[in-house]
Amino acid sequence: MLWVWYGLVLVATWNAVLRPSANIPITPYYLLMPFVGALMVSRSAWASRWFLWLALFGVYGLVVGTCYGVPVSMQAAQLLKYAQLTTFLGLLVWLGRIDPGSRHRLQRIVLALTATAFVIASIQQLTGLEFPTVVNEESSLWLNTFFFTPNDLALFLCGAFCLVLCSDNALWKKTLFFLAFIALNLRNDAKAAILASLLMIGMFALLLACRSLNIRPLIGLLTLVVLMPLSVVAMNDTIVKIGETEFDFIQLFQDPLNRLANLEPYDLGGSIFDRTDALIHSIEALKSNHWLGLGPAGSVHTLSLPNFELLTAKSLHNAIAEVLIEFGPAALMLAFILLRPYAQALLSKRPTPHQMGLMCFVAAAPLLSVSQSSGYISNYAFWLTAYLIWSPWSDRKTSAPFMLPTIAPYSPIPVDSRARAIH
């Protein structure tokens, strides 16, 4: 029956194109999700705890959201999205616990999705092919393959890029993937994805340098943090062109940070301006609610208010900031739990491939989080890659599939137990 669960993972990653039509948000995964969650709870005490923590997290959000004045219907809709994502991640973890070969099989799914995305993109470029359920008013301008927007596609490919970068595959394979990745995202004008990939490469190079010098990644990262502001100041008004858009370094980095520090919105339309203003307005609302959070969908509700309304956007367009602002201290606790492996990686003298992948992923996380708005939550193809990055890898070399890292199968048996069994 394992093939049924892996089939469900594949169905979830194709969520956008498996809808009945572009105007109907119901998908096979959404219909099956409650039954999957119920089955996991009935068969695993671990799954019961998983969903209990989700329920407590959601109740906290409902309480602070109601106090802030967010409509209950908006909160319920947002919590449902979080529940659907949590169920998907729970399914991946559950597969790891019941199937020793789950990691390899999930890798194969990512490989298939990545290859399919590039194949369909090539066909769309040549023929203009479109899936009816992912067509929108601007779809003719981009190649979105089996995703709803090109940013959906770019986010997934960034996860795959991190896996490829930190793999033990040959350099020519990594280079080939990088060129294809850059070409497709340049075609789609996915600037955040391109910058995120460059950040990953820079972090990877830094980690290699730290390993060769036998210093901890934390020391190298702190050195880089000191040098980056100096570099930005040195570049000053140097123009950077990505796709059809031009930026200067002050506009791209320093000025938005100054605005955020002083809570001074631009009140201008545009990608960078609206993202900065959205964050400023949300911070002001969070401050008015005693820093307890705005509740699920609280940031969207805030930006719909007359005094906080943006010119060309309706949401934060920043997934990390959205969770932190909506759940406040509860989100900080979640971040502390999730970032513990990252902290351990920073303190390692010789980081493992898994730790290097984790550090590259976290380095690019701020840019990845601004690549989408609400679609970030339901981009299950991306979350599949994030799960593979976050879950421990093995350093042992096996026959890795094309353009994916070598990851040994997970074994639920502790090392000490195996040793006792041998003796």
UniProtKB/TrEMBL annotation:
Residues 177-335 form the O-antigen ligase-related domain. One of its GO terms (cellular component) is membrane. GO terms for molecular function: ligase activity. It is found in: Membrane. Its main location: membrane. Keywords: Ligase, Membrane, Transmembrane, Transmembrane helix. The chain crosses the membrane at residues 28-46, 51-73, 79-97, 109-129, 141-164, 192-210, 217-235. It holds the Pfam family Wzy_C. It is a multi-pass membrane protein. The keyword Transcription regulation does not apply. It comes from the Bacteria. This is O-antigen ligase-like membrane protein. It comes from Roseateles asaccharophilus.
